[in-house]
Amino acid sequence: EIQLAESGGGLVQPGGSLKLSCVARGFTFENYGMSWFRQAPGKAREYVASIHSAGLSTMYADDVKGRFTISRDNDFQTVYLQMDNLKSEDTAVYYCKRSGVDYFGPGTLVIVSS
Question: What's the pLDDT tens digit per position in 45-75?
Answer without folding.
Answer: 999 999 999 989 999 999 999 999 999 999 9
